[in-house]
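Hi R.,

Here's the chain you asked about this morning:
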Amino acid sequence: MQLRYAFRLYPNAVQQAALARAFGCARVVFNDAVRAREEARRAGRAFPTAGDLSKKLITQAKRTKERSWLGEVSAVVLQQSLRDVESAYRNFFASLTGKRKGPRLGPPRFKSRKDHRQSIRFTANARWKITDGARLELPKIGAVKVRWSRTLPATPSSVTVVKDAAGRYFASFVIDTDPAADAVRMPETDASIGIDLGLTHFAVLSDGTKIDSPRFLRRAEKKLKKAQKELSRKQKGSKNQAKARLKVARAHAAATDARREFHHQLSTRLIRENQAIAVEDLAVKALARTRLAKSVHDAGWSSFVNMLKYKAERYGRTLAKIGRFEPTSQTCSTCGAKDGPKPLNVREWTCAACGTRHDRDINAALNIRQAAGLAVSACGAPVRPEPVLAQREETGSHGFPTGNRAAQRHGNPSEKARIPALQSEEHVKVLR
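And here is the predicted structure, written out as tokens:
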């Protein structure tokens, strides 16, 4: 499996200027390639090949007076920009023909010099390296200071330098993981668990554990409101507006980073302690169109489940998803009797069939675990759930159903949120 390991960069003023030139040159080559393909499409000609674009937009363009400054940056950066165009068109056509799953993708668009996120990529043939002084030496940029928060587990195949909206620089290394080392790090276990995601509690586990929702965005709202108000009062295009915009971006970045760290810590803990995990396939996009939209986005359920997915694949765990229409909050986890829907304020209820007193969220987590088929075999290992056919209601396109269980199950988020003490996890992102 390929993962990205990100580290903070601290370039000096000269290196920042060199990076700005590299960002600009890569953007110009990208836009020239998109323009060349669009002109060919309008004229009814075949798309120019990658070799033709490289020869015309890089090799020949460097010899012209208008594009002579392309020679000031590494040629690998420009070649990778052309590769990005090829990949964007390939994904667009695959999405257009239905070969690519997920939401429909549009054709590549021109990049703007005013985009707040810029990036360039160096592959192995760019001759970048990590120096003996633990700095990242990049061609035609220099040795940049890096804050190494951990050691790289293997030799990277490429590095991407990113400048985000908050003005921070990062180096993102592509690493091929070692399955043997991952198996040693996360030995097999016999435990399995169901997770009920919510708003008052971010997650309720089938063993009775309740993890409070930190509500990072809600806690930062006062600071964000003040920063946004200051930004709205600045003159458009002024330096003070740029400073105010940077202040807003940094406030958002702080909340985003804290949320990501919380997701990493919790997902790693669950993967380490359990061989199989069951979650509910929530309609996050539909919930984000309701009055709970801000709280749903603040929770970041999709990001958390995606982390569970790639970490389960990396460490040999099983992640099972049950249908979103499964009545987990209406069914008794003890006897299986369906008690019907309940209003949001009912947090505990007694089963009319067997008399068992249930906590609403813990009962839902138990039902999620049972619905996923996470039974324990004779050898003590969790049994991988069998494929389940989609219900008839799931095969079509639906809006947000009235009385959605995910909205009914969880009340308003608590103001007294806390972050549980969890073990730290490296900030890595799986490559799709």
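One quick note: Residues 375-432 have pLDDT under 50 and may be disordered.

Cheers,
M.
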